[in-house]
Design goal:
This protein is an all-alpha fold. 50% of the residues lie in helices and 0% in strands. The N and C termini lie far apart (34 Å).
């Protein structure tokens, strides 16, 4: 089981073609996520987690695997929470 909330997995799974099971360490492109799906994925992550993904974080490295993507999203969530507390 991956170490992220079910909501994250639900968002990612909704962008996989067919009835695929999300594989945490497999590149998203190998799981069928193309550039068009990536745009929708970014929008869904931003609205679902109330974060803004800056353009400079939209890289092949960040969006390589579900694991790398969750690291970025969780860091943005932490920064957002810290800003709200300040």
């Amino acid at each position: 089981m991956a170490d992220w909330p079910q909501r994250f997995e639900d968002v990612l799974t909704s962008h996989l073609p067919g009835d695929q099971t999300l594989q945490p360490a497999v590149p998203l492109r190998d799981q069928g996520v193309d550039s068009l799906a990536l745009v929708g994925l970014i929008m869904d992550l931003e609205s679902g987690f109330e974060v803004v993904i800056p353009d400079e974080l939209v890289t092949m490295e960040t969006f390589d695997t579900p694991e790398s993507l969750w690291r970025m999203v969780s860091e943005l969530i932490d920064k957002s929470a810290a800003s709200a507390e300040a």
